[in-house]
Amino acid sequence: MQILCLGEVLVDMLGQYVEQNGEHIKIFRPFAGGAPANVAVAVSKLGGSSALISKVGNDSFGKMLVSTLKSYEVDTRFIATSEGKTALAFVDLDESGERTFDFYVENAAHKDITDADVSGVPLTSQTLVHLCSGSFSTPQLRASSASLIQRAKSCDTLNCMDINYRPGFWQNPEQAPEIIDNAARKMDIIKASQEEMDALYGTDAGHIVQQWQDAGVSLILLTDGAQPVSYLSATSSGKFDVPATTVKDTTAAGDAFIGGLLYQLSTSLASGVQLKEFLSKSENIHTLLNVATRCGAIAVSRFGAFDALPSQADINNIS
C-alpha cells in the first residue's frame, strides 16, 4: 500500500542559539519540512512506499526540497513547480522544545495546487491518501483537496487527516473550525492534538469528536504531548501510554507519530483485511499506537524534521 500525501513541502528555519565571539546569538538553520512531506519521509524511512503531491517554487529552496525528498526515496513525480515562492516557516523553540511559528506563505508555491494537479494521480484500493487541514485553508486548496477525496472514495482509497491546525496558513482563521469539521467527517482516520481541538472548538471539542465518529470516521486519535494518546473506534476506546524521552524539538512529533501509524497500518492491511475489520480488535489499534508513539518519542529527541524521523532500527531500540 502506498501512502499518498497531499500538501505543503517547505523550509523550516529552526532558531538556535550559538556562542560567537563571546556572544550568545540566535541563528536560523534551514531544514526540509512541511507536515505532509514529513509524513511521506516518515513512511519511507520505515521501509514503506510514499509519494507527495505538492508544488515548490522555481528557486534554490524548491530544488533543495525535491532533491532531499528523492534522497529519502519519496516518489516526487507529483511535485510541480509554480510561479510562487517556496514557503518558509521560522521555528522558535523554548527550553522545553515547544515551538512557535512564523510562516512566510504569501503567494507560496504550494497554494497553487489545483484540481488539474490531483486529477491525474492514480488511486486504487492499495492507496491511502493523507493530508492536513492546511490543504483546506484557501478556496483553491479546498477545491483541489475535495476533488481528490471524492475521487478516493469512489476508488475505495482510504483517507487520513491530521488536523495540524496552523492559523498562519488561513486567509480567514475564523472560518477554520467549520471548514475543518466538514472535511474531517469525510475521513477514515483523524489525528489531532488536544491543544488543536481546544483552540478550534473549546468546550465543544468532545462533542465534535463524537460527531466525527457518528459520521463514520473509523479511528480518531488525540495526542497530548507526554500524556497518553486517546483513541476512539466503532468498537473500542481507551488510552495508550507514550514512551518517556528527553525532548529537544517537537517540530516533527505529530508527523512522526502519524507516519509511523500509517506505515504500520499499510503493512497490516497488505493481506487484504478491511480497515473496519482490522480496527474491530483493540489489540490491533494498540499495535498501531505502539509504533506511532515510539516514532513520536524518537523524533522529539532530535532536532529538525526529516533528519529527526526514525528508521526501523531506531524504533526497535526504544523501550
From TrEMBL:
It holds the Pfam family PfkB. The keyword Thylakoid does not apply. Signal peptide: none annotated. The keyword ATP-binding applies. GO terms for molecular function: ATP binding; kinase activity. It comes from the Bacteria. Keywords: ATP-binding, Kinase, Nucleotide-binding, Transferase. Residues 3-310 form the Carbohydrate kinase PfkB domain. Belongs to the carbohydrate kinase PfkB family. This is Carbohydrate kinase.
